[in-house]
Design a protein that fits this description.
The chain is mostly beta strands. The radius of gyration is 33 Å and the shape is elongated. It contains seven helices and 23 strands. Helices cover about 10% and strands about 35% of the residues. It starts with a helix and ends with a strand. The strands form six sheets. It has a nine-stranded antiparallel β-sheet, with no helix packed on it. It has a five-stranded mixed β-sheet with strand order 3-6-7-4-5. It has a domain of about 290 residues: Ferric Hydroxamate Uptake Protein, Chain A, domain 1, CATH 2.170.130.
């Protein structure tokens, strides 16, 4: 009896076993298009390192702009190339007039070596610089996911993909209405960012054979000043940290010797009447400041006594213990005010079970105000802007420097805060219209499209920029005071004179256009016993 039951149990296991094995079998993997390849393939087949970020992950990180997203990428070697990163005194002037754009730089190879795609297709590069796609033009609220190819793909995409590829994939089949409002206020204040978006769609490709959707996203980033953050403090002598910059709001006087720096005597060709009021050793009182002799450099915000001991190994340029230094970190605008709006509209139509047609319209406007630090001015013989003898603000240092010659004009180095921050208003408009087809014939997939894209940028100077000749002439008049003390300000006459030197108005503009016709076909070439024999 026991043997009979055992035989029945073994027979039952033989019937159930294959069923369980069938249920445990892995589902067939779907074919997808992998960034960095034009060929449809199995999702896990790609050998190149592709990072995928979903929209849900973006929201959970509190990211409100595409630029913020790119800054979080480890592959983006040097951070986003944006308006703030161009706010410096060391880079080329072109870095500070990029038109308010933000760029990606994978592996630190630069924006021109990083390709930015939208749904796998190119879009117009930024209108002002033309070197890459402006990240501000990407509608973050309509993104489904982002694919980042961390390796070069120049063989497929061209030399602008040497650093890698960032492919923004937009939502394409959405039904319903979704609205969101987000704000990112900092605990310390300043630099808040806000975003409002609405996404609406109707129709289903599976049941209705069509889908129409539209997305509108509005972003606003507020100004964040360096003075709002304590970490910009560059004067911490106890830790060996002190600024070396002597372009101060309360000007340092320059000294010099040698005929090349002296004023030619108009009555005696080849003779000189002396150009500076600090004769002798040019390093004895180099960049001397009246406040330094009084121990009052720190009476002006941001200024401090020059820490000679901390810079004793610096041989060029030389400084002296009579100079005042300036910590200009507080002058930086760490985040520029930006307003942007992105609109995306897409209609997809199922022409046949395996064939689709779609029309996509994309438009955006970005208004970014670039605020750079005030200019530094050097009053020299060559510039013809020395402070005149007899001027109302002439700084006579005879009480501190016995050899001081008060019959000579003053050469000085001045941070022209009274001229104002150099301010640029950049407006960028982007537009693209795309007509595309995609589908498959059996095991062959195809896609084709025709698109037209434009990007135009206009830059207007609104403050802080002066005509050089007018400003130098104004400084030479003696009306403007480069030595404004604590609690003091320029006179009304000086303010009007400074204003008369300024340029306000349109500065530069640019436009890029891109007309693109593309198509691709991929599929299996032949079969082998072990699987596909190859793909095209």
């Amino acid at each position: 009896m026991k043997l009979k039951k055992l035989a029945q149990l073994v027979a039952l296991m033989g019937v159930v076993g294959p069923v369980v094995a069938q249920q445990a079998a892995a589902p067939a993997m779907q074919r997808v298009e992998v960034t960095g390849s034009s060929i449809k393939r199995v999702a896990k087949e790609g050998a190149l390192p592709v990072q995928v970020i979903t929209f849900d992950q973006i929201e959970k990180q509190g990211i409100t702009t595409t630029e913020q997203l790119v800054r979080t990428l480890s592959a983006n070697g040097t951070g986003a190339d944006n308006m703030t990163s161009g706010n410096n005194v060391f880079g080329a002037d072109a870095d500070r007039v990029s038109g308010g754009a933000s760029f990606a730089s994978l592996r630190g190879l630069g924006p021109s070596s990083t390709l930015v795609l939208l749904n796998g297709r190119r879009i117009a590069t930024h209108g002002a610089s033309g070197k890459s796609v402006d990240l501000n033009s990407i509608p973050l609220g309509a993104i489904s996911r982002v694919e980042i190819l961390k390796d070069g793909a120049s063989a497929i995409y061209g030399t602008d993909a040497i650093g890698g590829v960032i492919n923004f994939i937009l939502k394409t089949n959405y039904s319903g209405v979704e609205a969101s409002v987000s704000t990112n206020d900092t605990q310390a204040g300043g630099g808040a960012t806000r975003r409002a978006s609405i996404l609406a769609g109707t129709g289903s490709l599976e049941s209705d054979r069509y889908n129409i959707m539209a997305s509108l996203t509005v972003d606003k980033a507020e100004r964040l000043n360096g003075s709002d953050r304590s970490f910009v403090n560059g004067f911490q002598p106890g830790r060996g940290l002190s600024p070396d910059t002597t372009g101060t709001p309360y000007a340092n006087q320059l000294s010099g010797a040698g005929t090349a720096l002296q004023i030619p005597d108009p009555k005696n060709p080849g003779k000189f009447i002396g150009g500076y009021n600090l004769p002798g050793d040019p390093t004895m009182y180099l960049q001397a400041n009246p406040l330094s002799f009084q121990g009052k450099c720190d009476s002006i915000p941001g200024m401090s006594q020059y820490q000679t001991a901390l810079w004793k190994d610096v041989t060029s340029p030389l400084r002296t213990k009579y100079s005042c230094a300036y910590d200009y970190g507080a002058d930086y605008v760490l985040q520029f005010p930006v307003e942007r709006a992105n609109l995306l509209s897409r209609g997809t139509f199922q022409l046949a079970p395996d064939h689709r047609m779609f029309v996509e319209v994309l438009g955006s406007r970005t208004k970014a105000t670039a605020i750079l630090t005030p200019m530094q001015v050097q009053a020299t013989v060559a510039n013809k802007n020395l402070y005149p003898v007899g001027g109302a603000y002439y700084q006579d240092l005879s009480a501190y420097i016995p050899s001081f010659d008060n019959t000579k004009p003053i050469s000085y180095k001045w941070r022209a805060n009274d001229v104002g921050n150099r301010t640029q208003e950049n407006t960028t408009d982007n537009a693209r219209v795309l007509l595309g087809f995609e589908g498959n014939f059996g095991k062959w997939d195809y896609k084709a499209g025709i698109s037209r894209a434009e990007s135009s940028t206009k830059t207007k100077l609104t403050d802080g920029y002066s005509y050089t000749d007018k400003l130098y002439a104004a400084l030479a008049s003696g009306i403007i005071n480069p030595w404004v003390g604590a609690g003091q300000s320029q006179t009304e006459a000086a303010r009007q004179l400074i204003e008369s030197t300024k340029f306000r108005g349109d500065f530069q503009h640019g436009k890029t256009t891109l007309t693109q016709i593309d198509g691709a076909v991929s599929g299996e070439l032949f079969q082998l016993p072990a699987g596909d024999g190859g793909r095209l």
